[in-house]
Amino acid sequence: MQRRSFLAASAAAGGGLILAGTRASGAVQGANDRVRIAVAGLNGRGNAHLSGFMGQDNVEIAYVIDPDANVLAKTLKKLEGKEAAKNVKGVADVREALDDPTLDAISVATPNHWHSLITIWACQAGKHVYVEKPMSHDIAEGRVAVEAQKKYGVVVQHGTQRRSDSGVAGLHEALHAGKLPRLKIAYGYCCKPRGSIGTAKPENPPKNLDWNLWQGPAVIDEYHDNLVHYDWHWFWETGNGDLNNQGTHQLDVARWAIDPDQTHPVRTTAVGGRFKWDDQGETPNTMFSVAEYPNGQMVMFDVRNVNYKGYEHQVYNEYYLEDGSRIVGEGNYKIYRPGSDKAEPLKIERGAVTPGGNWGSFIRAVRANDPNMANGNALEAHYGCVLGHVMNNSYRLGEPAPVEKIEFANSDATEHFERLHAIMRDGVGLADADTQYTVGPMLQFDPDTERFTGERAEEANRLLQDPQRKGFEIPAADAV
């Protein structure tokens, strides 16, 4: 069902929903430019969204939305006495909030499989959107979200906070302007300790959970407790693994560093596995990925989640330059010159961002009704998310191989994979003789058509869009 027909049917059935306009209404008007915002998804990041937006001047929390009645009630209780939420309404279905013509914006902190659909519905309803990373759960729906933003002209800002950091922006502006040696490899790390989720048996959903709404577009065979409320990240139907969870931040920064005339990579491969935990999670807890852009620049990425004594926490980016230099840091940078093992400060000018941090910049853009003010707009979000999706797709098509059989045509990739494996061998305790990695194929990707080509293309193209449940279909890009 499309949103329009859902609302019409609901109204006819006494559901009380009335179709609002489907075009952006322009800059925020009235009440001294008060912005009325809804927050969808109230666990984890949803609480951060509430705090962030309530900390902004003249922002009203109009709706809080969650299909779990217990979570919804708990949130409403926490908001009691808060001036910014004095008129807040709690609802289970996001469409009820989007139908309110006085709502200006929605902030999306739901599970990943809902991100694009809510973004698209909100654009169609003329609402501005702050959407958590990753904006998309698959490649095809991300493109539809981009086209919806273009058509309806609303602000869409991605929840990648580093886009609001003028120091990070300044480094990338310097790289793009040729003020530094040319970038060779943009490297990202998502290495934070996590643990096994065990195995949860299929059972009936709890009565407090609207299972139909929680599933939304995702085709899920059976409910189990490892889905709700966080570990959905580690199942392909609902999440994208840590590569496009925490890693979305570092992937976005890495892609931001690539020359600005580049859109998507043309080749990618991934190697990894889910080691030690013996649980029902599907996504890798260890992964090394490589993506090459048409101009020869590369992104390399590490995921390393298995905890061990002496675990090194790494959630950051590095930049390898063609002259042999390496830049490290975040916002304030240091550089290792060729042949030197001593870092020296790298002085660069701050870059251009909309001020106010990720929350304040979004509110500024909404008040101005200017999508160009978004720190991390829909198109930039799409490019960063697709980078992770193509890496994940290579892994998902992979086959087991012993570590001694793993080879890369690129010497830099070989070196960095061997570093990752050395940590897994010496720290985690993977024995070379017994360890099988999942080795993904080198996939070819056409940046213009956003489809895979060449060997294994038919299989890879099946992963471009997830199956969708009736009533929650993603529209075609030309039909938003």
UniProtKB/TrEMBL annotation:
InterPro entries: Gfo/Idh/MocA-like_OxRdtase_N, Gfo/Idh/MocA_oxidrdct_glycsds, Gfo/Idh/MocA_OxRdtase_bact_C, NAD(P)-bd_dom_sf, TAT_signal. It comes from the Bacteria. It is an enzyme of class 1 (oxidoreductase). Residues 201-270 form the Gfo/Idh/MocA-like oxidoreductase bacterial type C-terminal domain. Its EC number is 1.1.1.312. Keywords: Oxidoreductase. Residues 35-159 form the Gfo/Idh/MocA-like oxidoreductase N-terminal domain. GO terms for molecular function: 4-carboxy-2-hydroxymuconate semialdehyde hemiacetal dehydrogenase activity; nucleotide binding. This is 4-carboxy-2-hydroxymuconate-6-semialdehyde dehydrogenase.
